[in-house]
Amino acid sequence: MARLEPKLDAEGVNALLRRAFPGMNQAATTLVTEVGPGRAHLVAPYREGLLRPGGVISGPTLMSLADSAAYALVLAHIGDQLMAVTSQLNISFLRGAQPGDIHAEAEMLRLGRRLAVCDVRIWTESPERLAAQANVTYAIP
């Protein structure tokens, strides 16, 4: 595979997302902390509303973060093309995500003209204790 070079850095992706979604609560928003060739790291700040009964972070929260991480990764590599849309998301929940900031590491598996395929790994405790792993495909306009 050809070496992937991002068009936007982390701050560029964050600025693009703020512009695209102006109504988002900035204090509770997921933040792109790092972008590199074929990868992006995001952190979603912890808050009580993310917990499900049983005291672990809810599945819909983890799915949303997986989708957000893939979207940020795709935007970092294709630039200002906000109409890229999720065409497939498959997630495996590996263990309960304990309360805490939620990290997502997204890796580009394939970037084509029409589709981007990403692998997303999610954790709260440490990257060695994954809470979930997702495969996300984005359709590119």
How would you describe this structure to a colleague?
- The mean pLDDT is 93.
- The protein has a single domain, classed as Roll (Thiol Ester Dehydrase, Chain A).
- The protein contains two helices and six strands, in the order H-E-E-H-E-E-E-E.
- With 141 residues, it is α+β, with helices and mostly antiparallel strands.
- The protein has a six-stranded antiparallel β-sheet.
- Helices cover 22% and strands 34% of the residues.
List keywords for this structure.
single chain, 141 residues, alpha+beta, 2 helices, 6 strands, 34% strand
Q: Biggest sheet, open or closed, and with what strands and sense?
A: 6 strands, antiparallel
Distance from N terminus to C terminus (CA atoms, Å) equals 22 Å
Structural class: alpha+beta
Query: How many β-strand stretches?
Result: 6
Question: SSE layout and pairings?
Answer:
Layout: H1 10-20, E1 31-36, E2 39-44, H2 59-78, E3 85-93, E4 102-111, E5 115-123, E6 132-139
Antiparallel strand pairs: 1-2, 2-4, 3-6, 4-5, 5-6
Give me a quick take on this structure.
The chain is α+β, with helices and mostly antiparallel strands and 141 residues long. It has helices at residues 10-20, 59-78, and strands spanning 31-36, 39-44, 85-93, 102-111, 115-123, 132-139.
